[in-house]
Design goal:
Blueprint lengths: L43 H13 L2 H6 L2 E4 L5 H6 L4 E3 L14 H15 L9 E4 L17 H7 L2 H17 L4 E2 L23 H16 L16 E5 L12 E2 L3 H8 L1 H8 L4 E4 L3 E2 L2 E2 L4 H11 L5 E3 L17 H6 L4 E2 L4 H14 L4 H17 L23 H14 L1 E5 L11 E5 L6 H5 L21 H11 L3 E4 L11 E7 L18 H13 L4 E6 L7 H5 L3 E6 L6 H7 L49
Parallel strand pairs: 1-2, 1-11, 2-3, 3-4, 5-7, 6-8, 7-10, 13-14, 13-15, 15-16, 16-17
Antiparallel strand pairs: 8-9, 12-17
Length: 632
């Protein structure tokens, strides 16, 4: 999603995009696309209830269901006068404009929006959507999991499902209904700033993990747990092809239809089969046509061919990018198949213009009825009309569930399983816990850096002290070695007074989100500083374990050469102790946890390598990952 008017513009090198050359005109052939098995059977009683609701709704009430506003620009009182169907909190927005607002304030505001949405005689409760993309990450005190790129490295869909279920439960504590997750893009070029939001570069991996997260968030379709009091609505995003735009956020995907279908759309097919109830359209284009205005794909493929009967939502003001549209008016997006226009700031204008377009016939009555029916279907499946005010629901206000020890234990397990061992010369790892350990590098004691973006705020720039409960990587190492009688010294610059037995250097990317993370090449930005640190320790003949924090594979051959062991830790989230769990033996000397992570993307051999098909071939292929030797 997009949260600021001015985007960070990146100059991107003109590299060949992994993909087939575009056709002269973008033509979709829906009958050649897959048709997922229906996860939910037809429900005549539900459809009859929708018919009854539609029959008594006014045009204003119907149009309102098609508009979503951001809580920074709408108040509960506004909702009494404009019957909007949903609100969202942008990733930089919180109740009272306080990013550290207590969970209690979130629940209180959810009640106020809910009650205001029922002010009219025929009103339908409004939904509240949020970006809970690696835990309920907007809420201080919630469990923060590794970002999806790390979950893809675990190759553990059962774990991914558990993470989805925990995230849903913690979202429910604060009274919200809907999360804009998971991202099911297949990454074709790691220069893309949203690489870490994906599970990786394999269609199969993305499909498997995406479906697991959907099932965790929503519950298993067709069973009593589906969208019960412990679950929330999920969103498969972004339809379709946002991972194949040559490293340009919101760019143009030039793949053939066959590649778009067989590679880029794999995660969406799996999510629909798992019962996902909402799909978000992509900012990107396919062969020059903006997805928010692409009727053949949104309607012909997604709705008609794939049988998706939930709602399609636009991204943050994404309709404004459709030719002939503005932030204030966009009938073409609705005609193309967008059911809910995300109009975070200009919601009044969109409501007024859409109502006029409905009354004039520019938006056909049948398209309006279909869109409203889809919104109502999702709300009824989510029991929104029956559950009552958010604070009255089963898990609302159970603050002890936020960051609960059992939830944090799952997050720590995810950290352990996501770590990928790229190098282990002379079998340096696993380390003896009863050692004198130097912990160096800027990221060693930096919870903000290890969590990345979408953590309390959009770009991930809140200070580490605001992210609680949490344990830095250094704190986890210190706990592990002191428990065994060893010691750990923190020195970001690598200075020491007593020669250490080993140095663990933690370094990597600083947080970024969306276009701000697009890069012209995969050269590590802070290479000069961190390489100098590694070289100095290496020259002093101190064994070095390098731990890289990053949202994507980076060109690090020089750093790799001066490290005895090298670990890709991705963006592990708040439970940094999971790193020490794998690096060190137990106090008794046994290997408690082996490396299980496998690369979810190829690791580049050259700084401009743009994905799996780079001409030079990868340094480490997709699926690579070392383990400890047997009987260690």
């Amino acid at each position: 999603m997009k949260f600021v008017a001015t985007r960070c513009a990146m100059i991107v090198a003109s590299l060949a995009v992994a993909g087939t050359a575009a056709a002269a005109n973008p033509v979709a052939h829906p009958l050649e696309w897959p048709r997922p098995a229906r996860s939910l059977p037809p429900d005549a009683r539900l459809e009859a209830r929708i018919d009854a609701l539609l029959a008594r709704m006014t045009p204003e009430e119907k149009v309102g269901q098609l508009v979503q506003a951001d809580i920074e620009s709408i108040t509960p009182d506004d909702l009494r006068h404009f019957p909007l169907g949903s609100v969202l909190n942008g990733a930089d927005v919180a109740p009272g404009n306080d990013k550290l607002a207590s969970p209690r304030e979130w629940l209180r505001l959810a009640d106020r929006f809910y009650e205001a949405s029922l002010a009219g005689p025929h009103r339908v409760p409004a939904m509240w959507a949020t970006d809970a993309v690696h835990g309920d990450n907007n809420i201080p005190g919630a469990t923060i999991f590794p970002h999806n790129i790390g979950l893809g490295a675990t190759r553990d869909p059962a774990l991914v499902k558990r993470i989805g279920a925990i995230t849903a439960l913690e979202v429910r504590v604060t009274g919200l209904d809907w999360t804009f997750a998971p991202t099911v893009a297949v990454v074709r070029d790691a220069r893309w700033g949203r690489t870490y939001e994906s599970f990786g570069g394999s269609p199969h991996l993305v499909a498997e993990c995406g479906a697991a997260l959907v099932e965790g968030l929503q519950g298993r379709a067709g069973t009593p747990e589906f969208l019960d009091a412990a679950h929330v609505l999920a969103t498969a995003k972004h339809f379709v092809g946002d991972g194949g735009t040559g490293g340009h956020d919101e760019g143009d995907n030039t793949a053939s239809e066959a590649e778009l279908r067989d590679v880029e759309a794999a995660g969406h097919v799996a999510a629909i089969a798992a019962g996902v109830q909402t799909v978000m359209a992509s900012f990107s284009s396919w062969q020059g046509v903006k997805m928010h205005g692409n009727r053949p794909l949104l309607t012909g493929v997604l709705k008609e061919r794939m049988g998706f009967d939930g709602l399609v939502i636009g991204d943050w003001d994404g309709h404004a990018q459709v030719p002939g549209c503005t932030s204030d008016s966009c009938a073409p997006a609705v005609d193309a198949g967008i059911d809910v226009l995300m109009a975070p700031e200009r919601w009044r204008q969109i409501f007024v213009s859409l109502l006029a377009q409905v009354n004039s016939g520019e938006v056909p009555a049948a398209r309006l009825e279909d869109a409203v029916r889809r919104v109502l279907r999702v709300k009824l499946r989510a029991h929104l009309l029956d559950e009552g005010r958010p604070s009255s629901r089963r898990f609302a206000g159970h603050w002890e569930l936020l960051g609960a020890p059992a939830h944090r234990a799952v997050a720590r397990q995810a950290v352990r399983e996501s770590l990928v061992l790229l190098k282990n010369d002379r079998e340096l790892l696993p380390l003896k816990a009863r050692s004198h350990v130097l912990v160096a590098g800027e990221a060693a004691d930096n919870v903000q850096q290890q969590c990345g973006a979408w953590t309390i705020d959009w770009q991930g720039r809140r200070p580490s002290r605001d992210i609680r409960p949490a344990e830095s990587i250094y704190a986890g190492i210190r706990a592990a070695v002191t428990a065994a009688g060893g010691s750990a010294t923190l020195s970001p610059g690598g200075e020491y007074s007593v020669r250490p037995d080993v140095a663990i250097v933690v370094f990597g990317e600083h947080p970024y989100a969306e276009g701000a993370g697009d890069v012209p090449s995969l050269v590590y930005a802070d290479e000069q500083r961190d390489l100098a640190l590694l070289e100095r320790l290496h020259a002093q003949r101190i064994p070095v374990v390098a731990v890289l924090i990053s949202g994507r594979p980076l060109w690090i051959e020089a750093e790799l050469a001066v490290s005895d062991s090298f670990v890709a830790a991705w963006l592990p989230g708040a439970e940094g102790g999971g790193v020490a769990d794998v690096l060190f033996r137990s106090p008794g000397g046994a290997v408690a946890h082996d490396f299980r992570g496998r690369l979810p993307l190829p690791w580049p051999r050259a700084p401009a390598a743009a994905g799996a098909r780079a001409s030079a071939g990868p340094l480490f292929p997709y699926g690579y990952g070392l383990e400890y030797p047997p009987r260690r």
